[in-house]
Amino acid sequence: MEVLIVEDEPEIAQLIRQTLEKENFSCCTADNGFKALTIVQQKQPDVIILDLMLPGLDGLEVCNRVRQQAYSKDPYILMLTARGEEIDRVIGLSTGADDYLVKPFSPRELVARVRALLRRSLRHERQNNQVCQTKHFSIDLDQHVATRQLDSQSSETLDLTTLEFNLLATFLSYPNRVWSRTQLIDKLWGNDFFGDERVVDTHIRRLRKKIEPDAANPTFVKTVVGVGYKFED
Ligand code: CA
Predict the structure, then answer these.
(1) CATH architecture for residues 2-125
(2) How far is the CA of 191 from the centre of ligand 1 (A)?
(3) Cα of 91 to ligand 1 centre, how many Å?
(4) How far away, in angstroms, is 162 Cα from ligand 1 center?
(5) pLDDT per residue over 55-80, tens digit each?
(6) Fold annotation for 131-231
(7) For residue 87, how far is its CA from the centre of ligand 1 (angstroms)?
C-alpha cells in the first residue's frame, strides 16, 4: 500500500512519514502540488494525504485534477486543513476528498484514518470484481441485481430503474463520501445532461422510497445541507 504525503512544511511531512512507516506503510512525499501530480501519475498511490494550503497549486486544485484523470487506481484522498472552518469550505466545494483531518492531529488519529480509507480501498477492489457491498446492501454490476438485507436470514431484491440502480451503485462504491448534485450528474449522465440539477433530488426521493425503512427519515441516503448527499450504512 503506497501513501503519498503532500505537505510543504518539512517537519509535518516528516512526522507523518515516520508515523506511517512505523505502521509499515510505504510512503513518498511531495512539497508542492505540481510534484504531487507527477508522483500520482508515476506511482499511482492508494492514499494521498493532501495538505490544503500549498504553494502554487493548492490542495483543492490537486484534488480536482487527480479526480479528473482516469487512473487505473482511483486514490483515496485525506485532506489536511489547518483550521476547523476550512472543512466547510473543502466539503462545500465538493472536490472529491474522502476524508478530512484538522491540524494539529495525533499520530494515532492519522493512522486510524488511513486504515479506514484502505478498508474502503479493499471494498473498491471488490467493486472492480463487479460486486459491491455494504452492511445492508449488495449490488452485482454484471447481473444488474441490487439486494437489501432485511435481517440475518433474509434479503430482498430491489426493483430499481437503471438510473436508481446506478445511483445506488455510485453511493455503495464510496460510502460516506459527500456528493454534490453536479458530481452525481457527472457520474450518472456524463456530459449529456442539460437541465435543472434538482432533477437529482427527484431520483433520490424515488430511491429512498425503495430502500429506506422510513423515506421521510432516511438512514442510508442522507442529505448534507447546502451540499448534496451522502450514503451511510
Ligand atoms: Ca501547508
Answers:
(1) 3-Layer(aba) Sandwich (3.40)
(2) 34
(3) 18
(4) 43
(5) 889 898 898 888 877 666 778 889 89
(6) Arc Repressor Mutant, subunit A (1.10.10)
(7) 15
